[in-house]
Amino acid sequence: MKLIIPMAGRGTRLRPHSLTTPKPLLPVAGPMLIERIAYTFATSLDRKITDMAFILGDFGKEVESQLAEMAQRFGAKPVFYYQDEALGTAHAVNCAAPSLTGEVIVAFADTLFRTDGPVDLEGADSVIWLKQVDDPSRFGVAVLENNRIIRFVEKPVEPISDLAIIGVYYFRDGERLQRELQFLMDNDIRGHKNEFDLTDAIDRMLKDNAVFRSASVDEWLDFGTIPAWLSSTASVLDRQEPQKFQEDAFPGTRIIPPCHIGKNAKITDSVIGPYASIGDDCTISGSEISRSIVRDKATIESSRLDKSTVGLASVVQSCRQEVHIGDFSAIGVTP
Predict the structure, then answer these.
(1) Looking at domain 2-227, what is its CATH homologous superfamily?
(2) What is the CATH code of the structural domain delimited by 241-331?
(3) Distance between CA atoms of 283 and 223, rounded to whole angstroms?
(4) Residue 243 DSSP one-character state
(5) What would the pLDDT profile of 223-232 be if each residue is shown by its tens digit?
(6) Which of 6, 125, 142, 302 lies deepest, with the highest CB count within 10 Å?
(7) With left for phi above 0 and alpha for psi between -120 and 50, is residue 300 left, alpha or beta?
């Protein structure tokens, strides 16, 4: 089975962090968001992921190298495609046309989800992951009848369904999907925001008597904004196994779980947590950090940070307020 991951978007609402790191590569209590997504499929499906196809923007070779290493850790072959112009979800998936063969999973890399137990893919042309939501007017929704999807509606005005499509799809026949995607392009069939919508392609499959079934989602976490990144990271920390540290690992420091502390972090005379995620190789002294994300190789001194985000290799000194600084930045540092 192939895993197709469109991720060419710039993630503008996560700036400054997404200026230098694509959103799917940002950390979520340690691992990258995209790595957690891949792990979910590796543990919830009875098929092995043989290929991971990434649809990228102009992210550079370093990002491709990180993604290739991640795919290989899961025993999958990495394949790269490029979306040079943002023309919609259907266009993005169609950029990976050579990989749309046989069984495929399409997963947009901006949300994390959890489902209890394995997902049953048998007897269906397509399975779409759904989550019950309070406000379905914000989402594309599916209408169910006896666990079979009979209709799709994009951002319904009337309360026709409260089951939101979370952006994860299984297709038994990738070639069939690709034909419908190409039909939209060839006939210039556009939908929401004048873009080519994946929903239109799967709706055509539905009208052609394809059998669509649903997979339910117990938890659906958003990472589209900085507040969402912080709150969703806190949710992940709540449900993962607490870390164990040697008693003298961090001199003069109090650790308040849940929190994550990366490899080779040097922390002295500080209070870390709750809901703090500290990256690898960070140096923290005389500081209090709670409900915050600190990326790898950052240095924080004499500061009190809450609901804050600190970029890769950045330096924060004598700061006692909410801050959001990107990579290789400094605040409170005297020249």
Answers:
(1) Spore Coat Polysaccharide Biosynthesis Protein SpsA; Chain A (3.90.550.10)
(2) 2.160.10.10
(3) 26
(4) P
(5) 888 998 999 9
(6) 6
(7) beta
